[in-house]
Amino acid sequence: MDIIVLRPDATEEALRHLVKKLESKGLRTNVSRGTERTIVGVIGDTSKVTEEEEDAIRVMTGVENVMRIIKPYKLASREFKSDNTIIEVRARAIGGKKIQVIAGPCSVENKTMLLSIAEEVKNAGATFIRGGAYKPRTSPYAFQGLGEEGLQYLVDAREKSGLPVVTELMDPRDLDVMLKYTDIIQIGARNMQNFRLLLEVGSVKKPVLLKRGLSCTVKEWLMSAEYIMSKGNHEVILCERGIRTFETATRNTLDLSAVPVLKNLTHLPVIVDPSHGVGKWDLVAPMAKAAVAAGADGLLIEVHSNPEEAMSDGEQSLKPHDFRRLMEELKPIAAAVGREI
Amino acid sequence: MDIIVLRPDATEEALRHLVKKLESKGLRTNVSRGTERTIVGVIGDTSKVTEEEEDAIRVMTGVENVMRIIKPYKLASREFKSDNTIIEVRARAIGGKKIQVIAGPCSVENKTMLLSIAEEVKNAGATFIRGGAYKPRTSPYAFQGLGEEGLQYLVDAREKSGLPVVTELMDPRDLDVMLKYTDIIQIGARNMQNFRLLLEVGSVKKPVLLKRGLSCTVKEWLMSAEYIMSKGNHEVILCERGIRTFETATRNTLDLSAVPVLKNLTHLPVIVDPSHGVGKWDLVAPMAKAAVAAGADGLLIEVHSNPEEAMSDGEQSLKPHDFRRLMEELKPIAAAVGREI
Amino acid sequence: MDIIVLRPDATEEALRHLVKKLESKGLRTNVSRGTERTIVGVIGDTSKVTEEEEDAIRVMTGVENVMRIIKPYKLASREFKSDNTIIEVRARAIGGKKIQVIAGPCSVENKTMLLSIAEEVKNAGATFIRGGAYKPRTSPYAFQGLGEEGLQYLVDAREKSGLPVVTELMDPRDLDVMLKYTDIIQIGARNMQNFRLLLEVGSVKKPVLLKRGLSCTVKEWLMSAEYIMSKGNHEVILCERGIRTFETATRNTLDLSAVPVLKNLTHLPVIVDPSHGVGKWDLVAPMAKAAVAAGADGLLIEVHSNPEEAMSDGEQSLKPHDFRRLMEELKPIAAAVGREI
Amino acid sequence: MDIIVLRPDATEEALRHLVKKLESKGLRTNVSRGTERTIVGVIGDTSKVTEEEEDAIRVMTGVENVMRIIKPYKLASREFKSDNTIIEVRARAIGGKKIQVIAGPCSVENKTMLLSIAEEVKNAGATFIRGGAYKPRTSPYAFQGLGEEGLQYLVDAREKSGLPVVTELMDPRDLDVMLKYTDIIQIGARNMQNFRLLLEVGSVKKPVLLKRGLSCTVKEWLMSAEYIMSKGNHEVILCERGIRTFETATRNTLDLSAVPVLKNLTHLPVIVDPSHGVGKWDLVAPMAKAAVAAGADGLLIEVHSNPEEAMSDGEQSLKPHDFRRLMEELKPIAAAVGREI
Question: Does C72 touch chain D (CB under 8 A)?
């Protein structure tokens, strides 16, 4: 809270009362009387003023509006740390010159499939393997993931391919198990404001990939990063994955402008997941290119060796082949923006 | 999945292949050849077809679109249970003729304040006391709630006022403690798709008040109710509390049309929280009236005895008085729609 | 523009430069140096500062943000005129104690049908007849309205039923013709920011019913009212008809909180169109009741005597009957909020 | 209308009645009885079924839902014309290998400024000059444009620089004047569904640049293109310029996924306006790069020689310099996607 606007009908007494309250909090004020409104500038460490106190001022007699000038997050802000944060994971630097590519299936379905995909994406240039062992599904009747068995397969894939592992944590009770397996903990879009989970992953020494919530603003997203950082874990990777809008031609609307917006506001690495943002392979490739051109530090791309498999036993799939071509096509774009891939 | 639309260029072979797949799943098909598209109707128990299988069909050669006719939720649907579910909580019937009013402060701040509010709202006609002991806050630096101490104060308030307790659960690890205190477990908007938490509260014998997520569709909301019900707990109360839109004049946009929409789709009780939906007292009263007129089974309203208290030591507040007046004003509206309050 | 926030790194020279610019515009300044930001309060008639000038300040060296405190509309504001505007149309007062009900078909299809509906809605208690002669259709291949012939039928309906006419204007070139027939000119949602059309209807002596644009904020809506009023026509009726959100269970999301929000901000009458907001009859009735409970000054409801007619020659329809029942059901709700219907 | 889903409780008589209606329209049916729903496939030229008729079927007894399989636009669809439309304007091909860049100020303010900008953007590689002579402004008190005088300056700029002119039409009454000056007629976002204006520009021989409405879906956008094309003018350029969402860090959310989505659905050229989409220069450059990487056929970029000028008489501006640098930076990205700039 930094600026308080008074109502046109605010009395002198209401103003005095307000000023007294602020001074009782150790703050100073600067009253500016305009022709239509009187404005009170609040001077001092207003970051100590809590949301509750701000709300309390908002309902005081004579107050029309309270406006915060100072950002509500600190550790995540570019002002707190001006140089980019680079997160090292098994000799891969996220946030550095090289664009990191996290690839793999949506869910870990079985070991053979996962090892095969890991090998293929590694050969195509991916630098991390992903796959869900705990799956957030909108339906209770859908496959919920293999659990710890899936985590073990991811480690098998890492041992064979050399790719570090990214996988999602949904429940604080799974954290200890997960720490034994994964290299990066993913927090999914639906858990971006699961504050208890954020506090838990803030208390461990393991990088966190924080996906943007479906209807969360950039500011709220950075507040969720701040939650993690406030507990001591400063290794947070932000992942744009599409927001919810009225458009139905795509599953979500991938907000690529979030990339340069975040690059201004925060020092944390920013990656983009075009797969969840759009939903179809033929849209993923152009959006992956656009993400790199917009300045993303990395990509998260779903690769299935056999998208038809759930109902079949051998349909051929071009997906790994498409991924390989995409990786080739991304190279000149990365170079054009001073990056490598 | 019930209708599969083929692309205009789909071959006969692709069609045969698709039909064979479906038949291998125990389903029958009805092929309808139009002038511009061929459509495959799928006959049989398509509710067994998982999302994964549906997605797999979607990527098959020749397939343009897959459309589900059957609703993805079952236990929550009006078709499954045609008469309204009435949930009894300490002799109060939620979903019956009487409109239930849950009132109380946002957070439990201290015992004296809570007992005082409980007394006041009870006298005004509220039928439940609410207050947060575990608070989901966007900032890690804000007050996070009193925890179990707050739960104890809620029980103290219940003992004194006779009002049953509604309070929010954020973390599955707090469930056992919470069960000892609360009468209704609230799942907040930000946890509407915290699926692990849903499964946990689905496994206990305690009614669940499920708030709508900020960007969740009615269908997703019912799927989250289905999560809870699928574990055996059929006592779910749906609570509309505003969705996120571009409008900035209100904190959220209260979607009152969700009330009659839900009344068509589900047998579960539907209540409305105008406080979070709009954010200011002077908007809460008209929206509470509108909610009753729209057919809501209940209201959840924040009442503070002293909104300025956080920064002051005794500002007077008209809030309980406003609440009392609102309760009076709601009576003829409830009567007009055949209800009581 | 009233408050200018400087960047943390803004120099004293940048500040001097900014102050000099503002003074050259006849404005005075009040500089408030906080610990983290310096804030410049701008004093004087800032309503003369145009958007261009505001944007120009925003890009000046050292400026972080420019915030307007004063509302950008004036004639439409409650501060300009504190008492409610009541618009008289053929002895009906819109904005007074009596809730006005505008009813009729979406399009004027033929004379017989229109006269029949007019009679029926009049008998049920409607106070205005509506019907589109010029239809905004998303498809160029859909029926575009009967044009002037339709306007004539509306006048026929008025002569027979006594109900004044509301109909939509889409093109400034139709204004002269329309003035001969209609009592209230409707500006549709898709033309809410057709600024040329707004200026035209601002220049005539005829009340204007201004629908809210599908993605327009309350502020923009009032700016569009201001457009009309700035040309001299102060008889503007605001009509909420649903905004666009991600929800697909309803055609739009009817934003009933706009009613009390507008009642605070403006003196103009506010009516609600639940028909376009939700799209189905069974949802229209509860939302009409909710609108009245929320404080709306009127309703706009589509009534068809024969909704199946386009493909048939005599299906019976209960719609006028449903309307009659709704009008009855609205009476106690209107009474409950101190109104008549 | 192509598929009609019956309610679970639909009677045989209702089905017979429905089939008879459809047959009376010259359509055939294919009834598919599933275990939970009966589905009626409609065979024949359903494109002749109007929206009204579709709505009429929707309200028939026993009908639960009507689903269109066939796209509601035809001339704009990729199915109607499989190869890309290339629009030639004074020897520039929009939609071809070369990415066209339309640059210039938001408004035409004066001749000297415009000629200077035209020269600068031309030297930097722009291929069209833009500038508003008629300005859609949210406030009636803001500068509304120079009108025909501004159009003359644009022609002066074309004569001096050789760059063809793009400028916005807001009112059908200005069309004749505009045709004398401009090379491409722009229809702004707020007029995307000003159907009368669309019909007018559909009747002339001049390419139309159709901006996407702030809350319009891709389907509605293509329907608006269809409006223009239905009158004979097939030279329509689609311009993505951001949609409205809850995010406030940017003015709008630039939906770059619309580029590949449109490339699938339509043969029309697609360009991107990052300036309106994001609002700040430092975000425009990365989004312009992203747009090219996503496959856009062109860019529309605002260039001001002196952004502070409205309040000053000589502030230096780096904008044309920034534009020049951006044009250089775009070259390797264009090359990476097989294009030139």
Answer: yes
Per DSSP, C201 falls in state H
Instruction: Give the DSSP H or E segment for B208.
Output: strand B208-211
pLDDT, tens digit, 9 for 90 and up, residues A145-160: 999 999 999 999 999 9
Is residue B119 situated within a structural domain?
A: yes
Taking the CA atoms of residue A178, residue A105, residue B1 and residue D50 in that order, the dihedral angle to the nearest 10 degrees is 120
Residue D240 in domain: yes
- Tell me: do D186 and D278 sit in the same domain: yes
Domain of B8, CATH number, reads 3.30.70.1140
D-chain CB neighbours of A290 within 8 Å are: 256, 290-291, 293-294
SS (H, E, C) A249-305: CCCCECCCCHHHHHHHHECCCEEECHHHHHCCHHHHHHHHHHHHHHCCCEEEEECCC
Report the C-alpha gap between D167 and B265 in whole angstroms.
50
Task: Kindly indicate the confidence band of residue D106, based on its pLDDT and cuts at 50, 70 and 90.
Answer: confident
Distances (CA, A) of C12 to A261, A303, C18, C31, C60: 27, 55, 10, 12, 13
DSSP result, A57-69? HHTSTTEEEEE--
Domain harbouring D158, CATH code: 3.20.20.70
Encoded tokens for B28: 């029958």
**Residues lower than pLDDT 50 in chain B:** 310-318
Please answer whether residues B257 and B243 qualify as being in contact, where contact means their C-beta atoms are separated by less than 8 angstroms.
Answer: no
pLDDT in tens, C229-267: 999 999 999 999 999 999 988 889 999 999 999 999 999
Pairwise CB contact (< 8 Å): A255 & D253: yes
Same domain? For A144 and A218 the reply is yes
CA distance A132 to B67: 26
Nearest to A311 among B21, B139, B223 (CB): B21
- Model ipTM value: 0.91
Instruction: Quote the mean pLDDT of chain C.
Output: 90
Residues B127 and B242 occupy one common structural domain: yes
What is the percent of chain A with per-residue pLDDT over 70, rounded to a whole number?
94
A64: closest CA of chain D, how far (Å): 21
- Look at A245 and C246 and tell me if their CB atoms are within 8 Å: yes
Residue A341 in domain: no
Chain C adjacent subunits, 3+ CB pairs under 8 A: A, B, D
Chain A residues touching D264 at Cβ < 8 A: 282
Q: Give the residue from chain B lying closest to D35, CA to CA.
A: B44
Chain D residues touching C55 at Cβ < 8 A = 307, 310
Judge: B36–D69 Cβ closer than 8 Å, yes or no. Answer: yes
* pLDDT surpassing 50 at residue A8: yes
Counting the structural domains of chain B, the total is: 2
Assess whether D123 and D171 both reside in one domain: yes
Question: Which chain C residues are Cβ-neighbours of B260 within 8 angstroms?
Answer: 282-283, 286-287
Rounded Cα distance between D332 and B130, Å, is 60
A124 with A195, same domain: the answer is yes
Provide the domain limits for residue D37: 3-67
Q: Is C270 on the interface with B (CB under 8 A)?
A: no
Distances (CA, A) of A293 to A103, A326, B282, C21, D334: 19, 14, 48, 38, 11
Same domain, A150 and A224: yes
Residues C128 and C268 in one domain: yes
Among C13, C36, C67, give the residue marking a domain's end. C67
Domain boundary among the residues D13, D35, D67 is at D67
Chain A contact set for C79 (CB, 8 A): 8
A13 lies within 8 A of chain B by CB: no
Note whether residue B300 is domain-resident: yes
A140/B contact by beta carbon, under 8 A: yes
Spatial distance between the Cα atoms of C129 and D172, rounded to a whole number of angstroms: 29
| Residue C107 sits in the same domain as residue C157 | yes
